[in-house]
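Exercise: predict the fold of this chain.
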Amino acid sequence: MNYNENVWYGEFGGCFISDAFTLACDRYYEEFKEAVADSGFQEEYRALKEKYRKDGIRFERDKENGTIICYTAENYGSILGTALLGKRLGRRAVCGVRYADEALVCARVCAELGVELQLFLSRELGGLKTLTDELTRLGARYDTKMCRELFNLPEMYAFQAWVSAPDEKHLINCRSNVGAFPQTNIAAAFAADYCEGLIEAAEQKFGEVHRVVLPVVSGTAALAVITSAKEAKEFVCVECDTEPDLTEELDSYCGSFTKVMRNRYTDRVLAAELVNLMEQGKVIRTRTTSKEITGIQISEPVSLQSLAALQYCSQHPADGNTLVMVRQIRWGGAV
């Protein structure tokens, strides 16, 4: 498995936590490297990928603008890999979740691996009784009070729970924009491994891909595609939101310095490694609003950001093949 050993990505990234806990981060990084070098761990991770990546990918040629649409299953690599690390380390796991599907996957895989799990559920998920009933059935404990009564930041509460007892607890990452070094690096590595070969599969079917357009919320799935690519491409990341008056700030989110789109109620936190690629000009960043998306017809429901990516392709035709990733709608909220 390939993984980035950088503590910093340009001016982004880092490990903004108390010195008392940086030793735990260093130990965790050594434990991760030892695990991914172990053939038994690799085989167990491959088995998890096969089990949870059932939908695979599907390609469709858009005849109107010539783009290749790639319907991708959700990238659960970060959840599966960090949960498996939790099993190897024999620690209780904590995880902050914002989508119903990631809560269920996290609970299912932890139940399968025998990892004790506490979830912090976002405000949007806390009142879904069918979800909480299933989490209880799977043996996961969950907290709805923190996000309901305080800030709606489940990842932050999970990160704080880990910091309170890093030798006893383990942070399961759903995305690569949460945590300090090496947690963000490890989550990104598993996510990239999970989608490896995706661009190559498109090229086998349609010929060389020259441009890849990616929908972005946290940038985890987009970063995974970019870093797993075997050859350099033109990458375009498209962000879209329904939240009003979002402004860009620089902030340290759960220990990593990055860019955050923010208003009084909402944070949209970009993965630090992706932000650096944007700053270097290796990835084109574009943003739009939901009101600007018009006339996009597609055969199945996809996320708002996916519709924005499709519209970008129709408004910005390019020579050669453009591959645009689209993802299904997820139920919950995002950071």
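Check your answer against the key: The first strand starts at residue 8 and ends at 9.
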